[in-house]
Design goal:
Layout (H helix, E strand, L loop, with lengths): L3 E5 L5 E6 H5 L1 H4 L5 E9 L5 E6 L10 E2 L2 E3 L5 H4 L5 H15 L12 E11 L8 E12 L11 E7 L1 H9 L1 H4 L5 H16 L13 E3 L2
Parallel strand pairs: 3-8, 7-10
Antiparallel strand pairs: 1-2, 3-6, 4-5, 4-9, 7-8
Keywords: Cholesterol biosynthesis, Cholesterol metabolism, Isomerase, Isoprene biosynthesis, Lipid biosynthesis, Lipid metabolism, Magnesium, Metal-binding, Steroid biosynthesis, Steroid metabolism, Sterol biosynthesis, Sterol metabolism
Protein name: isopentenyl-diphosphate Delta-isomerase
Pfam families: NUDIX (PF00293)
Length: 215
């Protein structure tokens, strides 16, 4: 919770840093604090997407299903480097190892495709009037077969899904008591399936100039 996240303005310009705790306190979010984040979508060579269920101990959105890995680049030189989003990619590689035990050599930096950014804001569920998210989120796609050794402190469960399986999961989530993170739902609703259909030509859908404001 004391790791220093990167504070940005709404144009994604770095303006400072703050602890992970400070970045996720609703009091700070409601005063406009915004930080940089990333969401990794890792597909195997069969075209299936790796999902994770967040651990119960997470301060934001515990037990929620989400994309492969979601976290933050930190405020130190290697992860502040904005050249071709290399700092964000380094952070993604680091967190894939930390959360899912995926070795860096299985997810080379040059294999990450930075597609676009979204800006969103969300309160924690269950609502406790304390924690939330307010992020400019870099969307990263990567297609690799990997070995997963999930950390139980970070990940409650994981699974690979096809498009049809994800659509069924989302469509029956409320009925089955399945929780989905707000950023994952926004990405599904606005982008995911059209990107998934272009997985073999993923660079053709990249839009690195736009910050999509979603709610």
């Amino acid at each position: 919770m004391q790791e220093e996240c990167i504070i940005v303005d709404r144009n994604d310009k770095t303006i400072g840093s703050a602890s992970k705790k400070e970045c996720h306190l609703l009091d700070n979010i409601n005063q406009g604090m915004l930080h940089r984040a990333f969401s990794v979508f890792l597909f195997n060579t069969k075209g299936e997407l790796l999902l994770q269920q967040r651990a119960s101990e997470k301060i934001t959105f515990p037990d929620h299903f989400t994309n492969t890995c979601c976290s933050h680049p930190l405020s130190f030189p290697d992860e502040l480097d904005e050249t071709d989003a290399i700092g964000v990619k380094r952070a993604a590689q680091r967190k894939l190892k930390h959360e899912l035990g995926i070795e860096p050599e299985q997810v080379p930096l040059e294999n990450f495709h930075y597609l676009t950014r979204i800006l969103y804001k969300a309160e924690n569920i269950p609502k406790d009037n304390k924690w939330g998210e307010h992020e400019i989120d870099y969307i990263l796609f990567i297609r690799r077969d990997v070995d997963v050794i999930a950390s139980p402190n970070e990940v409650k469960s994981y699974r690979y899904v096809s498009q049809s399986q994800l659509k069924e999961l989302v469509g029956t989530a409320d009925k089955n008591g399945i929780l989905l993170t707000p950023w994952f739902k926004l990405i599904i609703e606005n982008f995911l399936y059209q990107w998934w259909d272009r997985l073999d030509h993923i660079e053709s859908v990249a839009d690195r100039e736009t910050i999509h404001i979603l709610s």
